[in-house]
Design the sequence.
């Protein structure tokens, strides 16, 4: 697999993170300017933002949980030459379900649907890690 094929899903996950960040900043700015939130209400990370800011903010925060394991695995798989077609296919499934989860999170926030999307992405990532670990442990040392 080419570096572009391996890293494109990772790039899209990074783009999702930045989109949520750049969406969140003006929402929080509006919360301050409208008086919905005062700086002292959130100085110690208290969740005293508007509901919209909380939705986008929590979705943004989610991008630093499970996806971190995806980033590490993608980089390891590429540099150890264990990022084949199955890896890339699973990476795409992971990213698609992360986008679906984020979409639900910032729209209707249906917990069961959001949870289902999260579960699929978590299982796919666990499978990716399992395959990678088995490949590394069973491949001859060079």
Sequence:
């Amino acid at each position: 697999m080419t570096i572009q094929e391996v890293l494109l899903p990772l790039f899209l996950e990074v783009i999702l993170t930045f989109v949520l960040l750049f969406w969140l900043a003006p929402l929080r700015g509006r919360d301050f300017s409208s008086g919905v939130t005062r700086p002292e209400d959130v100085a110690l990370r208290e969740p005293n933002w508007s509901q919209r800011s909380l939705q986008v903010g929590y979705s943004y925060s989610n991008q630093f949980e499970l996806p971190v394991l995806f980033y590490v695995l993608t980089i390891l798989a590429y540099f150890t030459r264990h990022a084949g077609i199955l890896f890339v296919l699973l990476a795409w499934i992971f990213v698609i379900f992360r986008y679906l989860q984020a979409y639900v999170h910032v729209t209707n926030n249906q917990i069961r649907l959001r949870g289902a999307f999260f579960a699929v992405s978590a299982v796919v990532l666990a499978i990716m890690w399992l395959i990678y670990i088995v490949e590394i442990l069973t491949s001859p040392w060079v």
